[in-house]
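Weekly puzzle thread! Below is a chain. First person to post its structure in token form gets bragging rights.
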Amino acid sequence: MINTAFSKGECLNHYNWGDDCHGWTYIDTEVLSVKQELMPPDTAEQLHYHEKATQVFFILKGRATFTIDGNVTELKPEQGIEILPGQQHFISNHDRSDLEFILYSYPSTNNDRINIK
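Winning reply:
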């Protein structure tokens, strides 16, 4: 087996989401996705949940505020959190600097995101 090393410049896909947020996909299979995402100050995603996917967020830079099933948790660099299938959640950046994190989803969240209005 040959292992492949990669960097942000060699990601599979760069994408934009939300209010000027960015993402880089490193692994994207049915069973696992690994992404790095960046959220500028004062941004948030929409409340949602996943029926099948478990997600693990690991903070690289900045402070992340997670709302999970109505409970608020703040994480700083080198901290992580697991979000289980069915948990309603969203991440926000209330800080004055960019928020960067690694996001592991297993299985992948492709076609497994239900937004809540």
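Puzzle host: Confirmed. Bonus trivia for everyone else. The mean pLDDT is 93.
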